[in-house]
Amino acid sequence: MREEIKKRKKIALLGSTGSIGTQVLEVVRQNTDKFEICVLTAHSNDQLLIKQAIEFQPNTVVIVDENKYDFLSNELWNHDIKTYAGEESLSQVVQMEEIDLVVTALVGYAGLKPTIAAIEAKKAIALANKETLVVAGELITKLAEQHQVPIYPVDSEHSAIFQCMAGEFHNKIEKIYLTASGGPFRGWSAEKLAGVTKAQALKHPNWEMGAKITIDSATLMNKGLEVIEAKWLFALNSSQIDVIVHPQSIIHSIVQFEDGSMKAQMGLPDMKLPIQYAMSYPDRIYSEFPRFNFLDYPTLSFEKADAKTFKNLSLAYQALDLGGTAACALNAANEITNAAFLNEQISFLQIAEINEKTMRQTDFIAKPTINDYVDCNLEARAIATSLLK
Ligand code: NAD
Ligand code: MG
After folding, report:
1. 276: three-class secondary structure by DSSP
2. Is 213 close to ligand 1, i.e. is its CB under 6 Å away?
3. Is 42 in the pocket of ligand 1 (CB under 6 A)?
4. Which of 3, 15, 199, 311 is deepest in the core (most CB within 10 A)?
5. Same structural domain for residues 186 and 260?
6. Is 207 touching ligand 1 by the criterion CB < 6 Å?
7. Is residue 281 situated within a structural domain?
8. Contact (Cβ atoms closer than 8 angstroms) between residue 185 and residue 218
9. End-to-end Cα distance, the chain
């Protein structure tokens, strides 16, 4: 019994109240002999965070929104749980000695600093927060190498590539194909997209996710961010990364090796599978997830992605080729425009228009330091905000 408790992986979960965060907790709930929650954090959903803390009894809980701190600490006073507030606390708690794995399930640029802090403390990372690699992939991957920290992908496409690479890490990748569902507006013209509403954009055909990534999926920004994420995770250049639309979301991505052979990973679209693989790697653990039935899917189809109409995808390739702070600027612009579309301040097509203008207008630094990324993020946000009017 003692041995078993010792072997449980101790997890810090950043963004526990979100779509990924709650699914991580489902995996933990099903595997209490393998995982133990050590830290839970959320931005402002105090009610859910309290409920989760009472169920999982972590050592520490952080709420980023300081206005919610008093309520949180009052509710948890008679549990043996430390409570903190504020953004800075995230970077401190991930460094706790007992943590084995930090799962970054928070959304946006906010993931950058805590991920750096976790890597510096030599914690393995299960990375859902793709924006961190988009903003500062070069810096993060160098730091991870320097501290010998593994980064396990949670994103389903990158998990697929990673699963295809098992036993093949010594072999060169010729090319990868990231699959894309195409989102709710697959095949639509620019004229038709002009009138798209927030409610239409929030209806993803195959996945239920947080609001930001759902909008990013509708604009194909999500696939663009994933192209950049793939570059850093698998050390590829842009000509080695292709996007192929696959509306059924059964094949999660494909690796092509130098001999021309291709490996694909498939399964029903359920984020718990890649989440669980990132948490249990190199082992696979039994799950009750529904199994795929070929006869339910007699046709798996493939189409070219329309990067002309869905401009965000081509902007991501441009940012990737420019390198430096270009992707940081694009990401910052997109966080502003995505939120503005959700607030019904701008139209669907303005998202990519403002992203493009912001990327062009933001100062470009070819060899950025961490402070350059911080400054670039602030500058691009200010430019994008001024372009909303
Ligand atoms: P979500 O909006 O459902 O949840 C976000 C979580 O982060 C919440 O717990 C929230 O409290 C926290 N958070 C939000 N802003 C924060 C801030 N400024 N500081 C600290 N914490 C903050 O988002 P999600 O859909 O779970 O996505 C999380 C990440 O995972 C994103 O980077 C997304 O791209 C990636 N991802 C999500 C899915 C999915 O199926 N949802 C799939 C692949 C990748
Ligand atoms: Mg994905």
Report:
1. helix
2. yes
3. yes
4. 15
5. yes
6. yes
7. no
8. yes
9. 62
Ligand 1 pocket, residue 210 CB under 6 Å: yes
Domain interval for residue 63: 2-153
Assess whether the C-beta atom of 224 lies below 6 angstroms from ligand 1.
no
Structural domain count, the chain: 3
| Cα-to-centroid distance, 13 and ligand 1 (Å) | 11
pTM, rounded to two decimals: 0.97
Name the token pair of 366.
């070819």
Q: What is the pLDDT along the chain (389 residues), one digit of tens a residue?
A: 445 445 899 999 999 999 999 999 999 999 999 999 999 999 999 999 999 999 999 999 999 999 999 999 999 999 999 999 999 999 999 999 999 999 999 999 999 999 999 999 999 999 999 999 999 999 999 999 999 999 999 999 999 999 999 999 999 999 999 999 999 999 999 999 999 999 999 998 888 899 999 999 999 999 999 999 999 999 999 999 999 999 999 999 999 999 999 999 999 999 999 999 999 999 999 999 999 999 999 999 999 999 999 999 999 999 999 999 999 999 999 999 999 999 999 999 999 999 999 999 999 999 999 999 999 999 999 999 999 98
383 plus 240 within the same structural domain: no
* Cis bond upstream, residue 114 (ω within 30): no
| Last residue of one domain, picked from the residues 112, 132, 153 | 153
Structure tokens given for 243:
């996007």
Q: Are residues 240 and 192 in the same domain?
A: yes
Ligand closest in space to the Cα of 211? 1
Nearest residue (CA) to ligand 1, atom 41: 209
Q: Are residues 115 and 225 in the same domain?
A: no
| Chosen domain end from 153, 188, 216 | 153
**CA dist., res. 389 & res. 387, Å (int):** 5
Instruction: Clarify whether residues 263 and 345 are in a common domain.
Output: no
Indicate if 73 and 131 belong to the same structural domain.
yes
